Amino acid sequence: MPIARGRASRIWADGRNGGRLAAPRARPQVWCRARSDRRGRDIVRRGRRASRLSDKTGESKLRRIETGAEARIRELQEAGELSGLPGEGQPLPTDPDDAAGDAWAARHVVRTSGARPMWTELRREAAERRMRIVVRLRSHLVWLESRQRLLEHLPAERIVSELALTRQADGRVRAEVADAIAELNALVRHHNLVVTATALHLPTASLEGLIEVARGPRG
């Protein structure tokens, strides 16, 4: 049976432990939640008002700039400083980027800044390296021909030593060219990894193939 009553709890008799205190029930704090919601709505309203004010301020600044520019143009026209300029009275030139559509700005910036995709730079560098190797081989072939003519007119006692020197020089040039070809092929493989279209892939170079190019007519 209950032995005491209170506002927050009740004490009940218990034969085992002598008594037990029941936990008070917490009242829902509805007013705190409502107050928090009101604060949130106030913050949102203040943010919207600030955004509208900033938009209006930006628009007014833009209008002032446009008005000032138009006034300056009228002053120059009245002073005659805009007369007799190159192209006066002529239609505007066609825009080369007009067909780009939504990508007009990007294409215009790329064209006017001289920027090019990475694969075009790799292709250009590979072509330049290949041409340098061909030029080196061409000059070496000319040197070999001159050495051959020299050996034909040397006395017998000098042919062996001069032939050994010629072979040593030829070996050094071939090793140098082989290293250059290895670097060229590494660049070509990099280019082919960047370019997904197989039709634009570059072939790797070989010493024999470049020697044939060097022996051919200059183009």
Average per-residue pLDDT, rounded, comes to 78
Cα-atom Rg, whole angstroms? 44 Å
Q: State the helicity in percent bands.
A: 55-70%
Strand content: under 5%
Blueprint of the fold:
Layout: E1 2-5, E2 10-12, E3 20-21, H1 30-79, H2 104-113, H3 118-152, H4 156-194, H5 207-215
Antiparallel strand pairs: 1-2, 2-3
Helix pairs in contact: 3-4, 3-5
Features:
single chain; 219 residues; mainly alpha; three-stranded antiparallel sheet; 5 helices; 3 strands; 65% helix; 4% strand; elongated; disordered N terminus
Outline the structure in words.
This protein has helices at 30-79, 104-113, 118-152, 156-194, 207-215, and strands spanning 2-5, 10-12, 20-21. The chain is mainly alpha-helical and 219 residues long. Among the domains are: 32-80; 118-215. A 3-stranded antiparallel β-sheet has the order 1-2-3, with no helix packed on it. A hairpin with a 7-residue loop joins strand 2 and strand 3. Helix 3 (118-152) runs antiparallel to helix 4. The longest helix is centred in the first third of the chain and has 50 residues, at 30-79. The radius of gyration is 44 Å and the shape is elongated. The protein starts with a strand and ends with a helix.
Outline of this structure?
With 219 residues, the protein is mainly alpha-helical. The chain is built from five helices and three strands.
